Amino acid sequence: MRHTKLALAVLTAAVLTACGGGTSPKGGDQTNRIAFTNQVSFGDSLSDVGTYAVGAVKAAGGGKFTINGDNTAKNVDLTGKNWLEFMAPQLNLPAPCAAQTGLQGDAARGFSVPIVTYANCYNYAQGGARVINPIGPGNAQAGSPIGETTVPLVTQIANHLAKVNGKFTGTELVTVVAGGGDILFQLGSLTQVGTTAGAQAFGTALATRLAAGATNPQTAAQAIGLAIATENARPGKTDQSVVQAAVGAAARQPGNQAVAQPAVYGPIVAAAQADGTAAGNSAVAAFATANATRLVTEMGTAGAQLAGLVKSEVLAKGAKYVIVGNLPDVASTPAAKTRPAAIQQLVAAMITAFNTQLKNGLGADDPRVLYTDLYTVSNDQVKNPAPYGLTNTSTPACGPNALGTTSLICTSSNTVAGDVSRYMFADETHPTPFEYDLIARYVLKDMAIKGWL
Amino acid sequence: MKVRFNSMIKVLGVAAALAFAQGASAQSAGQLTAKFGVNQITPKVESGDISAPALPGTKADVGRDKQPVLIFAYGLTDNISVEGALGTPYKHKLYGAGAIEGTGLLGTAQALPVIAFLQYRFFEPTATFRPFVGIGATYAYFMKERGSARMTAITNPGSGVPTTFSIDSKFTYTAQVGVAMNLSEKWFADVTVNKTRLRTDVNFSTGQTQFMKLDPVSVVLAVGYKF
Fold first, then answer.
1. Mean pLDDT throughout B126-152?
2. If DSSP codes are grouped into helix, strand and coil, which group holds residue A453?
3. Are the C-beta atoms of B143 and A19 separated by less than 8 Å?
């Protein structure tokens, strides 16, 4: 009988244990293994949290290279956040802010805003920034009206060291992601070659073809060519206005009135455009072939230089937690995918050169360095989007805006039609906030494996 | 596994030594027995992938746990008995696996398996060794699921909302084999191996789900008394 009582007591205890309060799911301990004191970031547009969020860019609701603005009320994934803005709060750190703001572009368009530095902001990343070269894509000296400052990483790091008396504390999380500015600059030069050659070929073909019906085709072609050149030189000209000028001039030539009919000039213009496109493509291909070795070598050098900076200016200056992300797969972005296969291969070779040199330069595993393979994950996302939750990995979410197609002033009000919240790309190269969220998760996963989380 | 098996043999050996020369009876019709012991539950995990959005191949592993148990059995006949157990919940640790291998401890959960067995015991009640087999109706109850900073980091970073998860409790069945050794007229020792079929779903607060085949094996070492 005594045994039975004991058994009942144990039974009661067990039931009480089982039914005691707090059986429902909870978040559990949200403390990180390492309490970082700060998030210090060097990089390009992928890490920029608002260097250019001033003047007309700010007025347009832009400033980051993604779909700007908190539109979570519309869709939870439209956070307007960059990956570092997902990282910081997860590490219990304040939202990152740009260490420098300002623009050096066209004052008439609101792109000339004095440069201001912020002592308590530690995100030095700037859209267009390259590793060493101060002139990146978007810089006024590269012909951009926006006038991005594109302060290169070498200077970004020097600026930080100047701010903190030359030493990292060793408790900050440092992020370094670059190479994007370098490769986009090179891609830009390819585009320029193609555009120039294409426009030239188009003009010549248009003049020749429109002049064919005139009494004296040679004189007519000269007159049409002059009209095209004049219109091309006029600010505010469009492809349409160039065609109009050419057709107008053609119709004034003796014996050539019929060409003013849309049914007549339409096919002529289309044929000339095809000529222009073909000429542009072949010019790009020729340029790429002629310069492939140089372009790949330059990217490789940039990768090696970045590794050198990390070692001599970050690690040697006391940083103990440094995340180095390699260059994502730019060859899988719409910017590259819309180009001929030869160019895509060249871009791929440039990325490989950069990443190989970066990794080799960093050398053997260092407990202070977390090398995160953004290339592989971005490459896989494009090929295998479903598990990532991505709904589109080929079309930019942002539609045309006042600056063309850049996501710098893309907001949820100028995206393309439909639900773009889980698109991979905001513009031709930059991620949407959802993709930035995925990048943050990937990096945090690596941090957990490294024992930093 | 080998170590555990060896220690099991040692326990039985000690029990045998204690039992020498004593006349033994065993569970017989109408007899209640109670045994106290240790149960180690080892899930044999085959994890599904966490559903989108996630890194493809994001899996989980579940650690084992050991808890004391109090098990009652009642003899319906000399060979057929029913058995039920009481115990404290099993605390299982969940680790990142697959594509997130190495991320470490992501969460914990407690499991309280409730099993009612119908057993068949071989040989006479007086035999020194009585092997037995059983089949049990099982309810696997999961509770107190707790996430972590790491779980939040890889599912919903920076939102300030910790990720939680719940594991679906399941009705299922358990197969049992064991052997009891009579130490004296009243005392016995036994070892039991239970294999439960258990497939369940994990539901995350982020809306993600994950299929888990747990199919746990439990090994019970116990010493009992016949009333």
1. 96
2. coil
3. no
Q: Residue A325 — pLDDT band, cuts 50, 70, 90?
A: very high
Residue B19 has pLDDT above 70, yes or no: no
In this structure, is the dihedral angle defined by the CA atoms of residues A41, A44, A50 and A51, taken in order, positive or negative? positive
Determine the residue of chain B that is closest to A33 in CA distance. Answer: B149
* Chain B residues 142-161 within an 8 A CB cutoff of chain A: 143-155, 157-160
- Which residues of chain A neighbour B153 with C-beta distances below 8 Å? 90, 441, 444-445, 447-448, 453
- Classified as helix, coil or strand, A370 is strand
pLDDT tens sequence across A117-142: 999 999 999 999 999 999 999 999 99
Mean pLDDT over A364-392 rounds to 97
Beta carbons of B53 and A445 less than 8 angstroms apart:
no
Q: Classify residue A314 by its DSSP letter.
A: I
pLDDT at A233: 85
Q: Is the dihedral of CA B138, B139, B143, B146 positive or negative?
A: positive
Indicate the DSSP class of residue A431. Answer: B
pTM confidence score: 0.87
Write out the H or E segment, with its range, that includes residue B6: helix B2-19
Q: Which of B147, B149, B157, B153 is nearest to B204 (CA)?
A: B147
* pLDDT-derived band at B199, boundaries 50, 70, 90: very high
For residue A336, which of A288, A371, A404 has the smallest C-alpha distance? A288
Q: What domains sit in chain B, N to C, each tagged with a CATH number?
A: 2-226 (2.40.160.20)
pLDDT digits (tens, 9 = 90+) for A3-37: 545 444 444 444 444 444 478 999 999 999 999 99
Instruction: Supply A184's token pair.
Output: 């986009």
Answer yes or no: is the ipTM higher than 0.85. Answer: yes
Q: B112 vs chain A: nearest CA distance in angstroms?
A: 8
Pairing of strands A369-372, A321-325: parallel
Of A286, A40, A298, which is closest to residue A163 (Cα–Cα)? A40
Residues 3 through 32 of chain B touching chain A, CB cutoff 8 Å: none
Tens digit of each residue's pLDDT (9 = 90 or more) over B28-77: 889 999 999 999 999 999 999 999 999 999 999 999 999 999 999 999 99
CB pairs under 8 A between A and B: 141
Angle at A289 between CA A293 and CA A300, to 5 degrees: 25
- Average of pLDDT values for A71-99? 97
Closest-CA residue of B relative to A436 is B157
All residues of chain A having their beta carbon less than 8 Å from the beta carbon of residue B202 are: none
**Distance of alpha carbon A167 from alpha carbon A49, whole angstroms:** 24
Nearest to B52 among A10, A14, A388 (CB): A388
How far are the Cα atoms of A303, B52, B130 from residue A386, in angstroms, in the given order? 31, 7, 56
Looking at chain A, the number of H-run helices and the number of E-run strands are: 12, 7
Q: Does B163 touch chain A (CB under 8 A)?
A: yes
Cβ-defined contact of B153 to A441 (cutoff 8 Å) = yes
Handedness of CA A403, A405, A407, A412 (dihedral sign): positive
Helix (H) or strand (E) holding A43: strand A38-43
Q: Which residues pair with B222 in a beta bridge?
A: B37, B190
Mean pLDDT of B116-121: 96
